[in-house]
Design a protein that fits this description.
Elements (H helix, E strand, L loop, with lengths): L1 H8 L4 E12 L5 E16 L3 H6 L1 H4 L4 E7 L10 E4 L2 E8 L8 E8 L2
Antiparallel strand pairs: 1-2, 1-4, 2-3, 3-6, 4-5, 5-6
Length: 113
């Protein structure tokens, strides 16, 4: 299994920064999220499958969606985290449930405007 994960890791060629929100209070007393660096990984982007788009349409809505693949081991990523990839910011909508033998962590993320 480790050999297969290592093989997949060689295909991850794009730097991905994970940012997580913390709540901060604004000048007017309103609470707003502030995103800060959590971790950096190598990953890659692909178009989601038609089935993934259909299954998660209630979360994706009309936003541009991407399937982001990250290493299988040692990755800390959750729904609502931001991913900064090649100057674009994506918001994680769902972390896809891993299979028994997972070779990568896969998330569906949408572009933040």
């Amino acid at each position: 299994m480790a050999s297969m994960q290592a093989d997949v890791n060689t295909t991850l060629d794009t730097p991905v920064e994970v940012q997580r929100a913390s709540k901060t209070q604004g000048n007017t007393g309103n609470v707003k999220p502030a995103y800060a660096h959590l971790a950096s990984y190598q990953g890659n982007l692909a178009q989601p499958t038609a089935g993934q788009l259909a299954n998660y349409a209630y979360k994706i809505a009309n936003r541009m969606a991407w399937r982001v693949r990250l290493p299988a081991v040692g990755v800390d990523v959750q729904e609502a985290d931001h991913l900064v990839v090649a100057g674009h910011t994506l918001e994680v909508q769902v972390v896809l449930a891993p299979e028994s033998y997972s070779t990568a962590t896969i998330v569906l993320a949408t572009e933040v405007k």
